[in-house]
Amino acid sequence: MSADTRPSRNWTRRTLAAQALGPQALGRVDEATRAVVPPVHVATTFIRDPDNQYRSGNIYGRPHNETVRQAEAVIAALEGAAAALVLGSGMSAATAVFLALSPGDHVVGPKVMYWSLRNWLVTEAARWGLDVTLVDMSDLAALRAAVRPGATRLVWVETPANPLWTLTDIAAAAEIVHATGAKLAVDSTCATPVLTRPLEHGADIVMHAATKYLNGHSDVVAGALATARPDALWERIVRNRVTLGQIVGPLEAFLLIRGMRTLPLRVQAASASAKELAERLARHPSVAEVLYPGLPSHPGHDVARRQMAGGFGGMLSIRVQGGEAAAIATAARVELWKRATSLGGVESLIEHRASIEGAGSPCPPDLLRLSTGIEDPDDLFADLDRALRKT
Ligand code: PLP
Q1: Which residues have a Cβ under 8 Å from the Cβ of 306 and sit 6 or more positions away?
Q2: 20 to 30 Å CA-CA from 318: which of 29, 179, 209, 349?
Q3: Rounded distance, CA 267 to CA 190, Å?
Q4: Half-sphere exposure of 306 (CA within 13 A, CB side)
Q5: pLDDT 10s digits, 193-244
Q6: Burial class of 122 by CB neighbour count within 10 A (0 to 12, 13 to 18, 19+)
Q7: What is the mean pLDDT of residues 121-126?
Q8: pLDDT on residue 269
């Protein structure tokens, strides 16, 4: 890295994202070609120096890949983190944190959260020896009652949480968690670093299903972790990633970097549209309830106003008058919205969520989850309105 590529000031997140800048990704103009886009490094092995050293810092593809490092540097810069890791999926990122604990450790998670992780926590993680307690994470008194000083090692929060968009006050949770000696990890997939930076609110680790907003184009499966400090838990996660091979390929890392360049623009557009849709759908005769943190009626609205800067995110859910059958029929009638799982892409998605969540899900059967993309919000509303009225 040449000295003239160092920033002369603290750039905003929007600038960091657009230029794909991070502490180690700074000024990634390829010296040989002067290309403004860095090359993709695909090599799985590297030449050893004649004196038996590896001065490049690269030995083998599982631990070492420059394109992956660049993606990590951008995520660390966006989250204001000491370090970041990119892994093979959101689930591999989340489980990497739990697998860095020890059998017998107590962990606390939310009742409302990404269903697959909750399912893993109460089945495999419990079998592996973690003592798992699930609580209503919007209720700080419930969290305070659940943590066990000296025994609880990790508290997991998702905010806003799938699919009810429940809010957790990260700063207040961090105070409770740290008083017990535990760590606080936040799944910030739906808030994104554009709207909330959990480490600034006192979290120790932030996690992303990078498959969603960070990539933003529904063409990469990846996960990310970022840490406030490289402590013992983090070092264990880093070691496990290499030895267990929880890695992402360089082509996915490249697509992730490319997606992140427009992250702030996409998230701002999706948030503005989601808010408009939430307000219009709240007045719709076929909608029983709209769940969106940006609505004053949402129980997490006050926390969201404090914790989310510049918008309330692109995710909302609606409960359809007429119950489950009416919800499924509505999803069947849309044309513009895509009937698919996942979220955070440029295209808007609609999903009857209870059909995909397993036993123990808090998702009501009449709920449709909406991931707002970047299309015109008038078109998105017209499509939903037509489908709802026909139902
Ligand atoms: N966390 C949240 C909030 C998610 O929505 C998802 C996926 O939908 C995940 C984690 C898991 O991510 P992945 O599908 O990349 O494993």
Answers
A1: 169
A2: 209
A3: 10
A4: 12
A5: 999 999 999 999 999 999 999 999 999 999 999 999 999 999 999 999 999 9
A6: middle
A7: 95
A8: 98
**C-alpha–C-alpha distance, residues 363 and 371, integer Å:** 16
Coil, strand, or helix at residue 166? strand
Mutate to test the pocket of ligand 1, among 189, 353, 370 (most ligand atoms within 8 A of CB): 189
CA-derived radius of gyration, the chain: 21
**How far is C-alpha 369 from the geometric centre of its chain's CA atoms?**
16
Q: Which amino acid is at 224?
A: A
Q: Is the pTM of this model over 0.70?
A: yes
Cβ pair 320, 388 in contact under 8 A: yes
Q: List Cα–Cα distances, 290 to 26, 281, 356, in angstroms.
A: 43, 7, 20
Strands (E), the chain: 83-87, 106-110, 131-135, 152-158, 183-187, 205-209, 223-227, 287-291, 315-320, 338-339, 349-352, 367-371
Helix, strand, or coil (residue 283): coil
The Å distance, Cα 90 to ligand 1 centre, comes to: 5
The 10 Å CB-count burial string (b at 16+, else e) for 104-116 is: ebbbbbbbbbbbb
Q: pLDDT value at position 39?
A: 87
Most ligand 1 atoms within 8 A of CB, residue of 87, 89, 114 to mutate:
114
pLDDT range class, residue 22, cuts 50, 70, 90: low
